[in-house]
Write a structure and sequence with these properties.
With about 120 residues, the protein is mainly α. The chain is built from six helices and no strands. It has helices spanning about 5-20, 25-50, 55-60, 65-70, 75-90, 105-110.
Length: about 120
């Protein structure tokens, strides 16, 4: 699926507009940046509406760490991309067992945690 690479390229272009444009016309740079931001937001809206299952969406995206380090995306763009996943994690209750030491319950909670990559 080419959705994730397209999303990453648009996000990288958004940053590149600010720092790698040779024109001295600030208004042009601002308009290019705004247009790129609009395209990025529209693509995110398209993705969230066409991929309703969050686990499918999460499987399409690179890890949070890869987006920030390997692809060098701005933090606000990384969290824009991960917002649907984070929203689901916040609204999904983590099941608790009657006994805190229950190994099966602990494994279930660990499975539901967000993998941020090596820290």
């Amino acid at each position: 699926c080419l959705l994730a690479p397209l999303l990453v390229l648009i996000a990288q272009q958004r940053t590149s507009i600010l720092f790698n444009t040779d024109t001295p016309h600030l208004k042009l740079i601002g308009n290019l940046f705004d247009n790129c931001q609009e395209v990025l937001v529209q693509l995110m809206e398209f993705l969230t509406s066409t991929v309703p299952n969050v686990s499918d969406y999460a499987s399409l995206m690179p890890s949070l760490l890869d987006l920030a380090v390997e692809y060098r995306l701005d933090p606000e763009v990384v969290f824009l991309i991960y917002r649907p996943i984070l929203r689901t994690l916040v609204t999904t209750p983590i099941p608790r067992s009657a006994k805190e030491g229950d190994a099966a319950a602990q494994a279930k909670r660990d499975k539901m945690c967000l993998d941020l990559g090596p820290v």
